[in-house]
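S.,

Sequence below, as promised.
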Amino acid sequence: MTGHSPYPIGTPGTAWGEPERKTWLARQTLQRRYTDDVLTIIERLRATWTVIEYGRLPHDPARYPLFALKSRDWRDGLPVVLVTGGVHGYETSGVHGALRFAERHAAAYAGKVNLLVAPCVSPWGYETIQRWNVDAVDPNRSFVANSPAPESAALMALMALVAPLRDRVLLHIDLHETTDTDESEFRPALAARDGKPFEPGTIPDGFYLVDDTERPQTAFQSAVIDAVAQVTHIAPADEAGCIIGSKVVAPGVIEYPLQSLGLCAGMTDAKFRTTTEVYPDSPRATPELCVQAQVAAVTAAIGYALGHRDG
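The prediction came back faster than expected:
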């Protein structure tokens, strides 16, 4: 993105206060329905899953109940697999990839793992196609003590409620997208909100994964990349050997310090952790292909984790 204009809210170089946040919120509009797209599928899944309501968004609790799907045959001796989607509500295939996995593929793991699936962590963001919540807070930087995002706080409370799961989670896979609007809207908005200059970047064309800098599992990440490559193309490194400014450590894999950044994928001590990044704006992608890529990532991740749980 070149020749960009200042973001239309706030004063360049000055962080937003409450008036700017209210102005930003007033610009957001409902563009799709959480009830129609997500809750109807969850209702259908009650036949085969234990459905847990683990909270409601405080600004509109009637409209935004929060649900997770728990294996009906939960056994305390089995490892736990956590699948999360829609932490950034606008990242559509994360939500529908989690639901597709739950509906069509999860039965294959009965008796092998306990599954916990939170398919739409940020339902207001889903409806408004937004990265932030109503307070202009990023839920995916808010998986921290005394979280400023109710979406993140509720999911962390769920993990504490279901069981003392932190040391029993074998795998956590968090389903995301990188979109063209990251560069055209969301990163400029972030710079404006924080009173910082916007520095343009590039959006990679293809799928990639984010590993944990502090506890990397490169072979695991590569196994997931190999599986997804059978469905869609993998993002190449740029001329500097990077994807979104981070060094590529293996084809299609970069690293972030998950816990210190407050990212969802760092909320447990799982041995295997990853964040998927689908690119839905590619001319080589379709909405269905993006969902299939997310499902391929989940199934490959579980397969690898089960095969290497004691390694």
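Helices lie at 18-26, 34-45, 92-105, 123-128, 150-162, 180-194, 218-228, 287-307.

Coffee later?
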